[in-house]
C-alpha cells in the first residue's frame, strides 16, 4: 500500500514547553523510578497470576500497584473503568505536581486535556449476578427471566464505563479540566496525536496549559485475545507473531505531559524540562509484515525533522516503538550514510506494547535520564541533543515526535 504522510507546515511548536511529567507502569509509580529502573536494564515482564491465561502467552508487564487516589466517583463506575482510571489519575496527578500547578492556579476553562486511550473491556463479575438471576431450573439462560428481573443486577452505568472517554471525563472532573479536549484511540500514534493536538491548541491561544498523553489497555483475557486475533502476540506453543523479528508482549501504562506556552511558563517561574519541536504523521500498512510500512515510517520521521527544522545529524537519541523490523530499517535509512548514528532505545523490550502510552512514556524517560553514558544499555552520551520518539500501529498508522531537553535535571 502506498504510504500517505502529513507534515505540519508550522514551526511554531518550538514555543511550547514541557513543564511536567507523570507516569505509572510495570517499573514504577513515578517517572523518576521508571527511568532509573529502565536505564539499569530491569524488565517489567512477569508471569500473569491474576487470571488463567489459557492458550495465550502467560507473560506481560502489568502495573501491579498503581497509586490509589481518592475521588468522588461511584465505586461501581470506577470498577467498570478498571485500571484506565487509576493509570490516568496517577500519571496526571504526578505531571501536575511536577509542573507546580495546583487547584485554582488556572481558570478550568483554560486547561486543555488530550489523551490517546486503548480499549476498555468488561469484567465477568459485572454480568455474573444478572446471569445467575436469569437461569432456568435446567441451568440454561432464560431470556424472559433476564428481561423481567435479571437485568436489574447490572449497574445502570455499566455500558458507559466501558467507553474510554468516560474515564477521561472522570479525570477531567477530578482535576477540574474544562478546556479544549479530545480522546484519540488506540495505538502508539494516538499518544503522539494527543500531544500534537495539545500543542496546536496552545499555539492558537485556545488554552493556557494542557495535559496530554496516553493510557494503555488493561491486561485481561479479552485484551490478550484481541492482541492474538490481530497477530500482535502469539501463544506459548506457536510463536505466530505479526513480525517475527519481535517478541511482543503487552504492558500497562499511563503517561502524561504538562505543556505550556514557553513565554507564560517562564513568566510564572516554571521549571522547563524540555520543549516540543516537531511532529510527522503517515499511513501505509505492510501487508506481509504487518504494522506500518518502512516507507510510511520514513515519511513520519522525515515529517517530524522537517517540522522541527532539523536534519538527521541533529538527533541524539531515538526512542523506537520497538515492534517492527520495518521501523529499524526506516531508522537505518534516515540515519545512515555520513550521519553520526544516534543512540537507539526502546521501552517495548522491557515494558511491553503500551499502545498510546508508549511514546509519551518514552519521551518522558528521554527527558529525565541525565546522561546515557551511565546506562548499561549504551556507553555513549546524547547530551542535550533532540530526541526522536516513534509511535506505530499494527493497523498501519505511524507518528514521530521530536522533543528537546532544555535542562540538566537529573534523577
Output the keywords.
about 35% helix, 13 strands, about 400 residues, Peroxisomal Thiolase, Chain A, domain 1
Q: Would you give an account of this structure?
A:
The protein has 411 residues and is of the alpha/beta class. The chain folds into 2 domains: 4-121 and 162-405, Thiolase/Chalcone synthase (Peroxisomal Thiolase, Chain A, domain 1, 3-Layer(aba) Sandwich), CATH 3.40.47.10; 124-158, no CATH class. The protein contains 14 helices and 13 strands. It has helices at residues 31-39, 75-81, 83-99, 124-133, 143-148, 158-161, 164-175, 188-203, 221-229, 262-267, 294-308, 325-334, 348-351, 357-368; strands at 4-6, 16-25, 46-47, 59-60, 111-117, 181-184, 209-215, 253-261, 274-283, 317-320, 343-346, 387-392, 397-405. The strands form 2 sheets. Strands 1, 2, 5, 6, 7, 8, 9, 10, 11, 12 and 13 form an 11-stranded mixed sheet that branches. Strands 3-4 form a two-stranded antiparallel ribbon. Helix 3 (83-99) packs parallel to helix 7 and helix 11 crosses helix 12 (325-334). The protein is globular, with a radius of gyration of 21 Å. The termini are far apart. Mean pLDDT is 85; it is low at 10-14, 235-246 and 371-379.
Short description:
With 411 residues, the chain is of the alpha/beta class. It is built from 14 helices and 13 strands.
